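In this supplementary section we document a worked example of the pipeline. Step one takes a protein sequence of length 96 as its only input; no multiple sequence alignment statistics are reported here. Step two produces a three-dimensional model, which step three serialises into structure tokens for compact storage. The input and output of this example are shown verbatim.
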Amino acid sequence: MLVMFPAAADPSLIDSLVERAAAALRQLMGFQAVTTSVDALMGPSARSGDFSRVMEADFATVDDALAALHDEAFQGVRAAIESLGPTLLLYELAEI
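The serialised model returned by step three reads:
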């Protein structure tokens, strides 16, 4: 699960939401890790300045990630994150 927070959002609010999301997600089935970007985003895609922060949550399976998104304990922070208008991506990884 990848959340790309918009640059227009208040950085202190993003900090709070990342912490709240991590705390809620850690309690859920299949949780593996939550990571977040540090400092400014870099690279050609970051030049537009659309995003200021990235948060990634890893789960054992896609079903676990989907269940986390719909878990009652996550709904408050989910609504707060979505109110900022982030880009949200769900994807499954495979080793190559």
